[in-house]
Design goal:
Elements: H1 2-34, H2 58-71, H3 81-105, H4 110-141, H5 144-171, H6 199-214, H7 218-237, H8 243-264
Helix pairs in contact: 1-2, 1-3, 1-8, 2-5, 3-8, 4-5, 4-6, 4-7, 5-6, 5-8, 6-7, 6-8, 7-8
Length: 272
């Protein structure tokens, strides 16, 4: 029975990665269509006003995002397998080694674990504050691009939160602190506190992806992705999540952030 559950879950996890692949494909298609100019010297057309990243459009865009996310498996294309297959393999390896990692590699020192939990909470707090800071700074400095970046990163995190809660309700995975870190799925006791996927990781990577897609400065890329990596790593070192939890969370979050920006962005990216 456990073997059957585990096989079923692997298919479910693979579907989570599949809808991510479709989001990336849809985002790329949107980007390509936006960059097609009718005349050689004509400016690149921008996202239509009804889909643009504004506070007024945010509720409608959020609902559209959710529709695209949950129906995206129907849009998978063969070229998505070029990176989906390696990611699926990495996820499978993570599942297979979760128990060993949590029992033989990660420390059981409670002080060390708590320090990592505190660090992850502080870093996710920074990501949550980032949209407000970006939008506020853009508002006072009359910088529409910064305002847009704030809206898009906030929208990406909202999308990530809904996806994360949906996957938790589908999987009910035990936390590493339960049952000697066996990580069983479909345990009713787990409920909303399911370990899979990591909410911290999914939300952090959604925000990081959105911000990095808006600001292509090498320093911006290093800062946001290092912070997101730190969130994921400290969730494992704090014994709050298995490596597979944070891996799937990070991949799904990155794809959501990437999709949101390329679907709703109006302004040109900032390279410096």
């Amino acid at each position: 029975m456990e073997h059957t559950f585990r096989n079923y879950f692997y298919r479910l996890a693979f579907c989570a990665l599949i809808f991510g692949a479709s989001l990336a494909s849809q985002a790329q298609s949107t980007t390509n269509s936006e960059l097609t100019a009718p005349l050689p010297d004509a400016p690149n057309p921008q996202v239509q006003d009804r889909d643009a990243a504004t506070l007024r459009n945010l509720p409608r865009n959020f609902l559209k995002d959710q529709g695209a996310i949950w129906t995206s498996p129907a849009h998978i294309r063969a070229h998505d397998l070029e990176w989906l297959v390696p990611l699926g393999v990495a996820t499978g390896v993570a599942f297979a080694t979760d128990h060993h990692t949590m029992t033989q590699v990660v420390s059981y020192d409670s002080s060390f674990n708590q320090n990592n939990i505190t660090t992850s909470n502080a870093m996710i707090g920074g990501f949550i504050a980032a949209p407000v800071v970006l939008y506020g700074w853009g508002h006072f400095e009359k910088n529409e691009h910064a305002q847009e970046a704030g809206i898009l990163s906030g929208e990406a995190m909202l999308d990530a939160l809904v996806v994360e809660q949906g996957l938790k309700l589908m999987t009910w995975r035990e936390r590493p602190s339960v049952d000697n870190a066996n990580g069983h799925f479909y345990q009713s006791a787990a409920g909303l506190d399911s370990s899979f996927p990591s909410s911290h990781s999914l939300i952090a990577w959604a925000a990081a992806s959105a911000i990095a897609s808006e600001y292509h400065s090498p320093w911006a890329q290093i800062v946001v992705y290092s912070a997101a990596t730190g969130v994921s790593l400290t969730r494992v070192l704090g014994r709050e999540h298995f490596p597979s939890d944070v891996l799937v969370g990070a991949a799904t979050g990155w794809l959501i952030g990437h999709y949101v920006v390329h679907r709703h962005r109006r302004h040109a990216i900032a390279k410096h």
